[in-house]
Amino acid sequence: MSAAVLSGKELSEAIRAETASEAAELAAAGIPPRLAVVIATADESSAWYVRSIARAAEKAGIVCDLVDLGPDAAAGTIRETLAELSGDPVVHGVILQTPLPGGAALEDLASAIAFEKDVDGASPLSLGRLAAGLPAFAPATAEAVVALLDHHAIELSGRHAAVVGRSTVVGKPAAHLLLDRNATVTVCHSRTADLAAVTSAADIVVAAVGRAGLITAEHVRPGAVVVDVGTNPTAEGGLVGDVDAGSVRGRAGALTPVPGGVGPVTTALLLRHTVRAAARTGGAAARVGREGSG
Amino acid sequence: MSAAVLSGKELSEAIRAETASEAAELAAAGIPPRLAVVIATADESSAWYVRSIARAAEKAGIVCDLVDLGPDAAAGTIRETLAELSGDPVVHGVILQTPLPGGAALEDLASAIAFEKDVDGASPLSLGRLAAGLPAFAPATAEAVVALLDHHAIELSGRHAAVVGRSTVVGKPAAHLLLDRNATVTVCHSRTADLAAVTSAADIVVAAVGRAGLITAEHVRPGAVVVDVGTNPTAEGGLVGDVDAGSVRGRAGALTPVPGGVGPVTTALLLRHTVRAAARTGGAAARVGREGSG
To answer: Each residue of A139-197: pLDDT tens digit?
Structure first.
């Protein structure tokens, strides 16, 4: 028996096609959707990710501005840049790329992103509204976890999900989204006493730690669904997840691949959020974005 | 064997004494701490709670204004009142009492409370900052859970806590506070498939549902610590928790009483937050409140 592969390809293509069509409508209405990516790092995997967003945005008909402040940018400069972009009426979405220069915290700086333009749900206000069940853009990665499970018709209500990782960008918002869908949710982390005992009690395991191969067969109940959010660069220039797929494949009921699982859905949702944010600024385009914040 | 009683009496008295002394210093410096309680309900247990806050505030040297808008107040009126009080320099803390008139959501209305005066952590921004690990006032009830466990020297790090209830005012913020203290946290709720199986796997059970007697011996692992957040009025005019104490007492290692457990600590923390908020507005009183938001 081998775990079913929960690919993100089909879903991400569907979201991107829908987004491209909404973007074209908006552009025709005089509101070309525009995403600003603020960069303050020379990190290579970050640069790779930014290029892939920029390419995907272009294909979807979204203008993507890369605002590179350099790896030595001061926190104050980053904050001012985010505030300026938030105040610029032609910009609809603003994201701040990580890692950040020495000591700066994403949660703190992201407070400078206006709520309506916070398309990657990075600000504390977005997180709080998400947790409170009020409309907000969720962090795209966290939303991708739930969207991928939905796409593959995996029931969430009443099931027990273990989220491994408690970051503000993935673990915590994913926990809130799963709770909102009536899952019972356990959040585990580096200080969890017996990780395998906790995760193997769950129907669904979401691995979002950033440590290659952390989740092995012993962490997974036979037949459980495993979502791998990790994207860890290998020495050979490839990408591996937080799940040791070779070990887990024979035990899990279903597993998201890396690459090709959560990743492409994340990018697609980021673009969808940008278009939805643009739709809200223009009454002329009221027809687009009627489905809420995602 | 009978469970140890985790009383809130000693801790609440200590916090109230410290708060009274800080309030006196502030008053002497020309900044009498002031709390505004906005009421839009004729609910009796709410009225009882408000009176107890007002009495406790008075004893601690905090001015307490009851702003009663009546049970038919429109959401817009409540919002405007919260915004006005937020803008009033002599008011340091603002809380909105529940229940609210037909359909109004606390999370939504509480957005109108200025972050610095949100002494009961009711606004989405406070919740998001709490979840992101940034300074914020936590909802007093959620903070009281952790404060009471700390006071009784109960270890949290690496232990498994089950929070029963996912409200924005208690369950969710308590989960974040426990996570922040390195507990592994499971959030359960009305849709949890087998509640007793989930809670009896935990070292610490926090019951915050508002249903008298929901938690019985079968929900508790022998020796576990049980925190009862429930305050359910009885037909006889008394108060009972969410825990069936008679059933749980013989099995749990420790149990918080109702009344006399989380409740008095909650009130004391609300007063402490108000004094801390007042201390921050006055440079003259910088010595007070140096310990952060609590």
So the answer is: 999 999 999 999 999 999 999 999 999 999 999 999 999 999 999 999 999 999 999 99
Token code pair at residue A56:
């995907």
Q: Do A127 and B132 touch (CB under 8 A)?
A: yes
Residue-wise pLDDT for A222-242, tens only, equals: 999 999 999 998 989 889 999
| Interchain CB contact of A189 with B (< 8 Å) | yes
| Bond into A259 cis (ω within 30) | yes
Chain A residues whose CB is inside 8 A of the B126 CB are 128
SS3 readout for A1-47: CCCEECCCHHHHHHHHHHHHHHHHHHHHCCCCCEEEEEECCCCHHHH
Domains of chain A with CATH codes: 140-262 (3.40.50.720)
Q: What ipTM does the predicted assembly reach?
A: 0.94
Q: Which residue type, as a one-letter code, is found at position B138?
A: A
The nearest alpha carbon in chain B to A203 belongs to: B193
Q: Are A186 and A160 in contact (CB under 8 A)?
A: yes
Torsion angles phi and psi, residue B43, rounded to 5: -60, 135
